[in-house]
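Record 1 of the preview.
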Amino acid sequence: MISMYPLEWLDSLILYTFNPKKTNVKMLSKSELFLISENVLKESQKVQIQLKKEVFSLHKKRHIRLLVRKYHSTLIFLLDNIVENQQDEMLKSSAVLKIVDLIINSLDELLSFVENRYSNYLSLDERAPVTYLIVSRKELLLRLERLKKRKISDSSDQKVMEIIIDVLSETIQSGMGHKITYRQIFYQKELLKSLEIFAETNERSNFYSGLHEVLIAQNFNCHKYINHFIDQISIELNSQDNLKSKMSELLFYYKEFSQLLSNEKGTFDPSQQNIKYVLENWFKHEIAYLERKIELSLETDDMIISSFQMNKQNKIECILSTDQMALILRAGDESRILKAKSMSHVFKTIVPHLATSQKKDLSYNAMRSKSYVAEERDKEIAIKTLERIIKHIKEY
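->
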């Protein structure tokens, strides 16, 4: 008769018989160990058959899902326990170690059977067993080592690849003591597969068609990579000559980025937000910042124009012609009434504030030149003007 708990024998074997805290394993005889080794293989087959029967007898998916997950989580629990017990000195004899290895292999085989045959009913957020992690770790590190030896033609992508390999190596090697889920392991394997395909093709026509496209698609939301991505775009923006060019370049990058897809389910770091969301936020803030800088720049330009216009409005209009004013200014300089480091400086300082009824903007250079080629009529008018000034002063 099949027990209501199909894993009862294996459960008792691992939690009691091969538990150094509850049984003196050294007291087990050779015949008992031999009997256990035979039964381990038989029990493994029984469990597989029993699971098939139970699944076949059920009709509702939720019932099958619950059953499969029960088996799966119990097998993981038993596997973790036997691996932990294996470290005890009491289980270090060669005869006992052979049995323990056999139990571990049988549990691994049962887990593989459940995962391969009923994968649709399993939760990827289940904690992966220690043995599964050990095997996966070896495989991933080996693939990373091979990837490290591949050379990427584009130097920018080569730098990105080095960042990924360092981060992944550190994550895989430091993750053994934590609760790692199947989802995390599957993500790492899928990411490595994408990187290997990229390393084979090694093509890049623009910023996003290279490694960045692969990593955004895989939702590689690692802070170190995100910071490197932002730094690369910032370097491109800072090479632009002015704010408008910088904004144009930034908007182009944002447009191209918006068209990329990113994995919504898989992620490198489950505790962090999706990479698409993080980078989109950065783009929006950068665009808003540049828009404000451009606005301030335009306001400054308006103030300069306004100031220039005010200067034009505040100019003093003179009834004399430019030739006549030129004579008076030259005479003022040469008689040392107006003291300056040069005659040019006199004209340069005073002329911008003067205007005639015919012309608002006067050239100090042109006026200075005319002071040397004055006509007789202009001399007469300049003299009469000065005489009028003298007359007024006498009347004060």
